[in-house]
Design goal:
This protein is α+β, with helices and mostly antiparallel strands. It is built from eight helices and four strands, in the order βαβαββαααααα.
Length: 241
C-alpha cells in the first residue's frame, strides 16, 4: 500500500512531562518519521498563551503541523499518522475485527485511563484539584480488567502492537506518579516491557519535580481533597498533561 513520502519534519508541540504529547512522540518515533519538538510549558501556562491558542484554540497539548496540515488531540493524531504513514497498515489494521479491537482500546484511553491514572497523575504532578481517591479507585478497577485481558494476548488489540498500545502506554507506564501501584497487575507490567522493547521506542521523562505548586504533601503520600470532581474540560489554567 502506498504511503506518502515525508517532505519535512513534523512539528510536535509538546511538554516533556505530558503523557498526551508523549503518545504522539512515541508514534512518530515508532514509524521512523522525522520530527522536531516545540516546547510548550504546562507549568508556566504557555498552553494558554495567545501564541499557542492560535495553534490549538482548546489550549491543550499536543498539536502537530505536518506541512499545511495542523491537528490536535492525541488520539486523532495517532490515527492520522497511522493512516498516512504506515504503508503496511500494521498500526491501524484494515480488518474489521482488528480495527474494532483497536477502537475499543482507544475508548479505554479516552475514558477509564483518562479518569483514572491520568487524573491521579494530574493531581500529584500538576496540583490540579480533583477527587484523588476516586481517580485511584477508577485506575485500579480498570487495571484489573486490563490485566486479565493481557494474560491472553501480547498486545492490547492482539498479537502485534497497534496505536491502541501507543495510546495507553504513557499513563500506565507512569501510573506510580499518580500514586497508582501496578504491582498487583503482572500482565500489565509485562506488556509495558514489551512496548518498551519495540524498535524506535522513546521513553517519557519522569516527573520528579517535587510537590506541585499550592499542594502541601510529602513525596509518595496521597492527599484526598474530598471535592466534587469536575466533568468535561477542567477550569483554566489546568494543564492537559
Amino acid at each position: 500500500m502506498h504511503a506518502p513520502t515525508q517532505n519535512a519534519p513534523i512539528r510536535l508541540y509538546w511538554d516533556v512531562h505530558s503523557g498526551h504529547a508523549h503518545r504522539v512522540q512515541l508514534m512518530l518515533s515508532l514509524l521512523g518519521l522525522s520530527y522536531s519538538l516545540v516546547p510548550v510549558s504546562l507549568r508556566q501556562g504557555e498552553h494558554k498563551s495567545a501564541a499557542f491558542l492560535a495553534i490549538n484554540p482548546l489550549g491543550q497539548l499536543p498539536a502537530i503541523e505536518d506541512g499545511p496540515i495542523r491537528l490536535f488531540d492525541s488520539l486523532g493524531i495517532l490515527t492520522y499518522l497511522a493512516l498516512r504513514y504506515d504503508r503496511e497498515r500494521r498500526w491501524l489494521p484494515e480488518d474489521p475485527v482488528a480495527a474494532a479491537e483497536v477502537a475499543r482500546f482507544l475508548g479505554f484511553a479516552a475514558g477509564p485511563l483518562e479518569f483514572g491514572c491520568a487524573d491521579a497523575r494530574l493531581h500529584h504532578v500538576y496540583g490540579v484539584r480533583l477527587d484523588i481517591d476516586q481517580a485511584v479507585a477508577i485506575a485500579h478497577k480498570y487495571c484489573a480488567i486490563l490485566d486479565a485481558e493481557l494474560e491472553t494476548r501480547a498486545f492490547l488489540a492482539g498479537p502485534a502492537p497497534t496505536i491502541a498500545d501507543v495510546a495507553n502506554y504513557s499513563f500506565l507506564a507512569h501510573a506510580d506518579e499518580g500514586g497508582v501501584n501496578l504491582g498487583p497487575y503482572p500482565a500489565i507490567m509485562d506488556w509495558l516491557e514489551r512496548v518498551a522493547a519495540l524498535p524506535g521506542f522513546v521513553p517519557m521523562a519522569r516527573a520528579d519535580m517535587g510537590p506541585p505548586p499550592r499542594l502541601n504533601r510529602t513525596a509518595g503520600r496521597r492527599r484526598s481533597l474530598a471535592r466534587k470532581r469536575a466533568m468535561g474540560d477542567r477550569p483554566d489554567p489546568s494543564p492537559r498533561a
